[in-house]
Specification:
Length: 570
Amino acid sequence: MRLRMKRLCRATGSRRSATEPLAMTRKRKLQRQQSRTKCLRPLTFLGLPPEMLDRIISFLPVRDVVALGETCRFLNNICNSQPTWKRICQRMNPRVKTANWRKAAILNYTKAIYSQPFRGQWHVLTCPVGLSVANGFQRILPTRDHMFVLDYDGTLFLLHIDMAFYNHGVVRWKAVSHYTVLAHKVKDFCGDPKSVSVSFKYLYVLMSQTEGAQEQLLEGQVAPSPAPCDCVELYRQSDGQRVFKLQFHPSMVFKQIALLGEETQRILLLLTEKGQVYSLMLNETQVGQSQSYNIQMVMRKVSQCLTNHVISYLCAGHNTVMYITDLGTLYYEIHSHGVYRNLFGTLQPFGSFDTEMPIAIPLSCKVVLCSISKNHLALADEHGRIFTQGNNRYGQLGTGDRTDRGQPSQVAQMKWPVQIWCGLNHTLILIQERDTRKEIFGCGCGAGGRLPGWARGSPVFVKLHVQVPLCTRYICSTRECLYMVCGYDTEEGTLYRHLPDGHEGPPGTHTGAEETGKTYQNYMSQLLKCSSPREHVAKAKEIVAQMPLQGQQKDFLWEALNVILRASDS
């Protein structure tokens, strides 16, 4: 009876009366559905509690979190909160400990090391090397067998890389087999700058540590905290074994080191936090002996002569070292006849003065970047202008000719470099284009594939056929490979400022109107001298590589010239 009454009630309840309109029935049905779902979920995504939103956003990729934070003010506050970035960063690298979690997360998300072999048929990037335990990549020093990597926490790693050899001994990476932690609290490290083939014997590491030897105190007394002191440790490059250690007084605090001289008379330069330069002499053939002795450390003459200047940076080369002061003035020491002749084109004043006496470079603006090799040097001032000096036999100065320069000469059509690298007979420059892409330009000798895409070399800077990652911030080159270190630092500011006359200086290149007109007239005269269509296209591609265009525009013009050349041949 009850079952029959339930069925009757359901039938009468579901049946719509004749007097009730259809719209009213649908409205009541919609209200019942809304009442059911209202208690289950909020009306919008923004109605969730902030703690739940933080938890959900922390599982998104870093790229999506940054994009989501640009949508509205509410999501911007949530996506930029430190708890959210802390969870993201600890998921990628649990050993990171910092106050700025957003910077650390983005730095670990974009970190990678790419390489492009010079010889062989592989003119593409190899698989990126990513060390999960490293907090970004600050500096690298590649060798033929492995690589030294310094992260932003001051940890020095030794990466053992499995390699395969193809086509006449061309090196191509396969994977990182394992790694070794050499030292912690590392401030700086360096190898022999004269070693072109990166086959130096010892690696010098500047690090901060706590003094181990402490006196035993009586019972009940509290032991004082040990005073931190700096030390320099020598590691064997072949296996990473420590063979020697130099320990300094706690009052001497250093921030950078550099090497000069030969193995038997190695000069170690140390830059203090106060901007003073000290030096000491070592004999690398005796560092393996198990004995302790004292070494005399003296102040360098650059600090004795320039008492009112503070040295902020050291740049060592082949028997040469460059000093940059806090005011941007550049000085260098030259300890070799050959290097002096290459840089100045003469030996007349060499030998008449002390080699430790600093020589000033005549520049009116502040120097912010520099690089030096055995034959030449390159630098950039605070306005982004690039200057080169030295031997120009292979066109490594990028001036368009092969005439040596005894003083810094400005390079046309190239400005605002991210980094400069001087090789033996070539120069590489990393530049950010206007469309935020980065390209590598090079000039000089192209033998051995040093300038990918330009086997014959070039006396002017040309765009290299290299796939440059977007976050590349550091480049270095060896005989076998070109290495690119990636990482985006959110707190890194620009090095350059505009010229006093008010000219705008976007990332890329910029010249005056008169200079640009003369340059294009010179390009046209070069095209008119060509005799065949193939020469015209080759010269036009070379001119396009030198023009201040975006990367996509240059690629389009190159492909268009190739299409025109194929059509003319057919």
